[in-house]
Write a structure and sequence with these properties.
The protein is of the alpha+beta class. The protein has helices spanning 65-72, 88-93, 134-141, 151-159; strands at 7-12, 35-37, 54-58, 79-84, 97-102, 107-109, 115-118, 129-130, 144-148, 164-168. The longest helix has 9 residues, at 151-159.
Length: 175
């Protein structure tokens, strides 16, 4: 599930959203209200239940081969996502929806940009679309999906490496 040209996506478990109103997300470090969405490259970050903690790593322009081999693994592609065993059932059962939004209303946020935001209310371009099988999406995108007992050892290795990375909802991971 990716946006078409001129679109960005917002992923949600709520299929009843008629308009997106800027707000300050509880998890945000920013105090300005926004409508959040993602472009093509960052969609895979959200192919999960909302509360699911995930650690993600991928090869970037400054990634060295040793880190790729050690963390992603030989023959395992360019990207890996990791979750904990206790989230597998939720990943299999979640009903996730994608809302297509007009890209021209959004601007990149973060350094490097990890999302796009809009400061005005936004109406979806159409009804929400069921995202479907999240395991299948990962497979089709060539993204390795790793299941671990605990994310923290993996996360510590990733963040100390030359790989690019993102961690979402890590506060929900086992301690």
């Amino acid at each position: 599930m990716r946006p078409e040209p001129g679109q960005v996506l917002h992923f949600s478990e709520d299929p009843t959203i008629e308009r997106f109103v800027p707000h300050v997300a509880v998890t945000s470090s920013r105090s300005e209200p926004y409508v959040w969405a993602v472009g093509y490259d960052r969609c895979p970050d959200y192919w999960f239940p909302r509360a699911c903690p995930r650690a993600m790593a991928w090869v970037g322009p400054r990634t060295d081969e040793a880190d790729t081999a050690r963390i992603i693994g030989a023959g395992c592609g360019q990207r890996v996502h990791a979750i904990e065993y206790c989230w597998v059932k939720a990943l299999m059962e979640v009903r996730l929806f994608a809302y297509r939004l007009p890209a021209d209303r959004f601007a990149p946020i973060g350094e490097p940009p990890h999302a796009v935001v809009c400061k005005e209310t936004v109406k979806p371009l159409g009804p929400p679309e069921p995202v479907g099988d999240l395991f299948e999406l990962h497979e089709e995108a060539g993204i390795q999906l790793r299941v671990l007992d605990n994310l923290w050892p993996f996360w510590n290795e990733v963040t100390a490496s030359s790989l690019e990375f993102s961690g979402i909802r890590l506060r929900n991971a086992r301690r």
